[in-house]
Amino acid sequence: MGKKKETITIYDVAREAGVSMATVSRVVNGNPNVKPVTRKKVLETIRNMGYRPNAVARGLASKKTTTVGVVIPDISSAFFAELTRGIEDIANMYHYNIILCNSDLKKEKELRLIETLLEKQVDGLLFLGGEVTDEHRDIFAGSSVPIVLAATYDDEDESRPYVTIDQVQAAKDATSVLIEEGHDKIGLIGGPLTDPILGYPRYQGYKEALEEKGLPLREEWVRLGDYRYHSGLQSAKELLTGDEAPTALFVINDEMAVGAIHAAQDLGKKVPDDVSVIGFDNIPLADQVRPLLSTVAVPMYDIGAVAMRLLTKYMNDEPIQENQVLLEYRLELADSTLTKETQTG
Amino acid sequence: MGKKKETITIYDVAREAGVSMATVSRVVNGNPNVKPVTRKKVLETIRNMGYRPNAVARGLASKKTTTVGVVIPDISSAFFAELTRGIEDIANMYHYNIILCNSDLKKEKELRLIETLLEKQVDGLLFLGGEVTDEHRDIFAGSSVPIVLAATYDDEDESRPYVTIDQVQAAKDATSVLIEEGHDKIGLIGGPLTDPILGYPRYQGYKEALEEKGLPLREEWVRLGDYRYHSGLQSAKELLTGDEAPTALFVINDEMAVGAIHAAQDLGKKVPDDVSVIGFDNIPLADQVRPLLSTVAVPMYDIGAVAMRLLTKYMNDEPIQENQVLLEYRLELADSTLTKETQTG
DNA sequence: CCCAATTCCGTTATCGTTTGCGAATCAGTT
DNA sequence: AACTGATTCGCAAACGATAACGGAATTGGG
């Protein structure tokens, strides 16, 4: 595997080029205080010697690593994968690299990862989609690196920067679509209510929509899944075989929503004629099933991109006008619901 | 954002604990050569002072960063997301972190990213899914860090470690399934033939299967897409409206395959009765459409995991018995083809 | 109770850069 | 020719750890 005799350092280049290491450092870093002819000579010997600056040493000396940490629940989920792509694109644009960590939403793992990232001296940290507990806040407070939350927020810390959408309102809007279609028997396939990021607020939105329209919240029309396809399939099967089955389902993420559609079809019901289904997130899958899934289009890529951009502002001490941003979402109404229109929220 | 007065170093801890920094370093690194009582005292003052070891300084001194670089085409693709999850899990298990970079399969970007990762002194490098050119080989050769390829291989460098599957054979097997179903008009929706990783070999497998069974390769039954859903939809529409339309389609990835199914349905054809479809990869989507998609199950997670494991062996100088591994794939026959059976290859 | 073998632990040299400070060079003005 | 203000550039001190080396303390056997 091509062992090079020894690593060549800035000092070697300096000696070879007949200048000091300070000068080499200057040309490497684009410092203008170096005569063009000198710069040229240095650049030349750098090329000839195949010198590659050591970013670790640079990091020690400059106290900057141009690296940011990203803690994410699960990269293999379409939602977070897309979000990460937004992060990485902006990071790349600003010449940062990202250290990616999967937390599986386990608190202990999250804390451990954050600790590790801080040890690695990341210039900033992006924390996605987990609940922010007191222990998180302790670590955050004990560090001076900027930290921004994405696709989540901290309901206890008013000042913690974040980028996400208004989950409650979006869920309310989605439910309202079904109500306005004329449905009065609307089921919910939700997530764990202990999940303060998705499960609870989306349930809350569903509840508020019903209340506002004077519809009762009936427990037998509510099932809580685990966000996965089969969970949606199973839950819908239960809901739709009931005596007085709902004629519409609000499913709080697309993967489960597609499961719900298939459950309906398996039971011989037509979507949307017999049962309307609306999902949430607008992952690519929503566009790759028949009937096309109506859903709440969450700007996943943008959440990542905006969060990363915000982080760069913190890292470079740029002025910040808005450090807590709620991005717009869109209702993407397709074939799994009756009406067709598009709203913005 | 909680500015701490000043960073506390190993030296501060040493002074506070009444020992030398060497001793502190020893307890931090779990070196056994330190008396239990001393260790306890040091650990205590570490806790009290909130000392956090600086991994950058450690990296400089020890020449190890416990970080590996991962260059991947696109994290937002289900295939690579799952693969990355495998990588990260194993990395985490061995206490490595990963720096993730999206290359979009652009050669220049790949080279730039690899260069950056080497500057950051990663202990190892995982290169996924792009073509390995001479320029890649140049950089690889000029560095002493172990590099392993995943989901690709280097056909010019016999010794470069890799982990992938036998693309040609798998494509051949998939095509053969259709032949054995009795089809003799089998279309292909492929990728760019200039793609040496997926496009070409999977086309090659299709071709070989036909040849072996004495079937002609007819150009009008071949379309080349871009791996995306809509491309599959469009290509299938063209293929299936022809005068003498194929009765079966081998589609070289699942996303396009699902598009093909929808195209068939849009044309009023039933799958699999009127047209059989078999895909490739077995992304979650294959399991979330109706009819369920027959496909070649590629062990994406395992490719990542095994590649990362192999890399750890290189990084820790463990003995290596096999440095080029072809993982097993499986034919996952479901409802989009007629026969039902499972083979291994 | 002494000496050798262990165990512990401190000294010090590095690791490869960045960076503040001051010296040296160079023009342009008088 | 002397003076001044920029430009350039070198020196050397950090940056925060690791690790080789050797000295001191502890232990055990005879």
From TrEMBL, chains A, B:
- Keyword Repressor on entry: yes
Which residue range or ranges hold the HTH lacI-type domain? 8-62
An example molecular function term from Gene Ontology annotations: DNA-binding transcription factor activity
**Top-rank taxon:** Bacteria
What InterPro entries does the annotation carry?
CcpA, HTH_LacI, LacI/GalR-like_sensor, Lambda_DNA-bd_dom_sf, Peripla_BP_I
Q: Which Pfam families match?
A: LacI, Peripla_BP_3
List UniProt keywords, sorted A-Z: Activator, DNA-binding, Repressor, Transcription, Transcription regulation
Q: What does this protein do?
A: Global transcriptional regulator of carbon catabolite repression (CCR) and carbon catabolite activation (CCA), which ensures optimal energy usage under diverse conditions.
Protein name per UniProt: Catabolite control protein A
Originating species: Paludifilum halophilum
Upper classification of the source organism reads: Bacteria, Bacillati, Bacillota, Bacilli, Bacillales
Gene that encodes the chain: ccpA
